[in-house]
Amino acid sequence: MRATRAIYAELDQRPVQRDCIRRTECCQFKLTGRTPMLTAGEALVAAAALRATGRRSLPESADEKTGRCPLLNPAGKCLIYDARPFGCRTHFCSAAGGPYTRDEVRDLVRRLEEIDARLGGDGPHALPMALEDALEKILHPARGAQRR
Ligand code: SF4
What we know:
Elements: H1 2-13, H2 29-32, E1 37-38, H3 40-52, H4 86-90, H5 102-118, E2 125-126, H6 127-139, H7 141-147
The protein binds iron/sulfur cluster (SF4).
């Protein structure tokens, strides 16, 4: 988790002009046609942040039409904004400056993939599933160890 957070901090230091003003357009997966894909390290960071809110499971997504992210609360705020996954930090809507290009973040993506491999992951998974798995690991670490 430390290594993943270090990557997020490094991204924040990059001199690329983007300005997320939390319009949450990119959090409506059906409308955008995109669901963030999380590597194992990202999922653990996000799950730990969700756990820190006192939750033991993913909130039910309230809006079938937009397929809104389950981490977007009814007031339209991300429950884990400071721990949001890499995709949420790089796929900006056009109002916020547009998405990062692959070249701008290729090295960081590679490091996330390396962390995924070290954690025994098999590549990125869609946010809801990745978070459910990571929550299970945090809540029941012994079960994961037994499965391995
Ligand atoms: S994790 Fe937060 S920023 Fe990312 S899609 Fe969900 S609500 Fe939006």
